[in-house]
Structures are given as C-alpha cells and as structure tokens.
Amino acid sequence: MNFNNKEFATWRSQFGRVTFLDSLGTPLSVKGHIVATRFATEESGSRLQSGIWAEDPLSPGERAAGPDQLGALGRVVISSHYSSIAEKLSQPVLANALANGVPLPDELRVVGVAWRVIAGPLAGRRFVGGYFSSGGDLPAWRERNGKLGFERPDFLRLNRPNATFFGIEEGILKQVVAMARAREPFVQQISGFEPVDFFYSGFSVLRDGSALGPLDWFLPEEQVEF
C-alpha cells in the first residue's frame, strides 16, 4: 500500500466515522492515533520503500468544554488498564472493581508484599507484587536478622530456572486503590512513573509503574495494605 494512493485514502477515511458521544448523545472531539505500516521486499523494486505513517487526529465533534465531560471516559480507560495489572498481581477483587466500575468498599483491604529494589538506579524503590516461576527448584524463604530473603535449593546447579518478579510501584498502587474506592465519575490522572535510563536488558519499568525483572533484583520487605 502506498500512502498517497486511492487505496490508502479509502482506508484512512474510515476513521472519520469514529465518534465519541457524551451522555446526551452529543459528539465530542477527542484525541486519537492512527498508524499504518508499509513493508517492502527485494521484489518490490527500488521505488517502494518500507515506511510508517502516523498521525494523532481529533475525532469529529465539539471540543470538550472542561475535563468533567471526558472524565467518565478517562476513568474507564485508566480503570481497564490497571484492572489487567491487578489480575496479574492476583488481586481479583481490586481487578473486578476497576473493570466494572463498582466502588471498592473501605472494609475490603488490598493486601500485598512490598519488595525493595536492591541495585541499580532504582535501588531503594519499592514495588508491590510477587514472582512467577516456570517450575523446578523454587527459591525458599529465609529470615535472618529480621530480614527476608531467598535461599537457592542447590547452589552448585547453574541451569536452575529463574523466577521473574512482577509488581507495581507502591505509590502508584495506592493511587489506583483510591481510584477504585472513589464514587465520582471523574478521576485525576494517575501519576506516571518517571523514565529510568537503561541499566539492564532483563529489567523493565513502564510509565504505568509496572515492573518486570529477575527476582534477584528484589528483596521482600513487609506486608502492606491499602
């Protein structure tokens, strides 16, 4: 597909028919993004090159007069995103509250374990979560001088399966739980996790505060609840 031909123009025109309606049925203009990718091979010839076409257009409709008009949509998008994270954290009640928009009662507490990053630029930061393992010899808990840690079952075995930590930054999880308890349709934006310079290929932290990396980088500190 060429980005200048009729076929592309026909494909692009479909996005002009996408509308967002408020509770009164009035079309509101919201930001979106459209991406098209063209792949070329040796058989395509020298005139056709691989490329990416992208834009961030506004949908048809009136511009929102204030944040309250788009508050409900914003809450749905944010809640849906963090609901999937709560599922991975084995927090089904929190995930359900976020997915269905049913406020989480104060008497139901979200309980987890806070883990501290022990090295790198994130040393000292805490994430609430746990670990996944592909099976085999799992690390064993130990407690020494009031601190929790892991003890490998066989220190001589080098091909042991590695466990992977998954969690969410403690402060961001606190905001997410507060949003799940709120009864107002409008919610302030959840704080994004500040970017971190590259330090290890197997360790990643996204803007939503979720972290994924080898268990060796994390040390469980205490049980927390929100």
Automatic annotation (TrEMBL):
This is Uncharacterized protein. The lineage of its organism: Bacteria, Pseudomonadati, Pseudomonadota, Betaproteobacteria, Burkholderiales.
